[in-house]
Structures are given as C-alpha cells and as structure tokens.
Amino acid sequence: MVDTSKVAMSLLFVGLDGSGKTTLLRTLSKNLSHEILPTAGLEIHYISMDNFTAPVLVYDCSGQGRHRENWKTFHEYVDGIGFVIDLDDDDRLQFVKRALEDTIKDEQVQKKQLPIYLFLNKSDLLNRMEYQTVKQYLDFDNLKKKSKGAISWKEVSAFNFNEKELQECFQWLKDNRLNNKKFI
C-alpha cells in the first residue's frame, strides 16, 4: 500500500469495466493527456482540491471480472468507496447489483462502516437508463438497510463533471468517514 500519512483520505474507486472510473478520475485530476485504456489491475491517483488540506489518494481498481475479487483487499486500507455505475449498460445491471451487494456485505466494509458513494455515470447519454429504474433494480433502499455505513449517490457524466461536484462528493465521503472514525 501507499504511505497515507500525507493525504486527506484514501478512497477505493470500483465498478464494472467500462463504467468510466478512470475517465472520471483523470478528468478530475486534469490528466487526459493520452488515450484511456482498460485498467490493468490498478491505477493510483492523487487529486488536489480546494476544500482539502492535502491530496485525496484514490485507488482505481480494474472492473474486469477476474479483478473484481481484488477489490476487497483494499477495504482495510481506505476511508471510503466510490462505486461507479454505467447508466448506458443495462445488459450488465445484474452484475452491478451482485458486485455492489458483495461490497456492502464485505466484513471490512461492515466493520469499518465505510461510506459508499454511487456515481451514476454517463448521465449525458440519450439512451441511458433512468435513475429511478436503476434505483429500483438495485433496490437502493434495501442496500441502505444492509449497509452499516452511509450510502449516497449522484448522477454524473465523466466528461461534464466539474471540480465543484467532485468536491461535494468527496466532502460527503469525508464527512461520513469522520462520523465513523471510531471504527477505522
């Protein structure tokens, strides 16, 4: 793991492959200098924001099937989880639901009461799923009951996402992490 003594907090960014995790993070860190390819295992991002005294460390994990099992190895070391959902991929919503439930039920996530922020990505696309459809299919209300930590969500577009929105999302994770700090 990376030395976290000089960061405001550390986050794990997960979601199925192609959901836009890396694009979202690179857009926010202003690092779009080259083509974005599928993440092979892990990328590490340091994101600086006005309302944080130190950078936020983000572990960007591959969402490919064979790599999803690795997500849980980070739960012990992070302060919160960003879970990215592709609103343009209704064919794999069942896999999103399973991955999200597995994340919420994870022993470390439960023990630390990690806050989870759901980024409903690609909201700018015309043929995307509606928020209410996703909320109903994933049974958000039941997920909130199963989770010992806080859960929130926001519709976003990686290409139209701005720093103010990111700060709001990360501030929510920070606030909810601090509320559960006694468990970390």
From TrEMBL:
GO molecular function: GTP binding; GTPase activity; metal ion binding
Residues annotated for GTP binding in this entry: 15-22, 63, 121-124
Binding-site residues for Mg(2+), renumbered to this chain: 22, 39
Superkingdom of the source species: Eukaryota
PROSITE patterns: ARF
Keyword terms of this UniProt record: GTP-binding, Hydrolase, Magnesium, Metal-binding, Nucleotide-binding
GO CC aspect terms: Golgi apparatus
UniProt xrefs under InterPro entries: P-loop_NTPase, Small_GTPase_ARF, Small_GTPase_ARF/SAR
Protein name in UniProt: p-loop containing nucleoside triphosphate hydrolase
Organism, scientific name: Pseudocohnilembus persalinus (Ciliate)
